[in-house]
Amino acid sequence: MKKIHLPPLGALRAFHAVASCSSFKRAGEELNVSATAISHQIKLLESILACRVFERSARGVSLTETGEILYAGTQRAFAALEQAAAQIMHSQQPQSLTVTTTSNFLDPLVGAASGRFQGGIPGHRPAVTYQR
Question: Which of the 8 DSSP states describes residue 24?
Answer without folding.
Answer: H
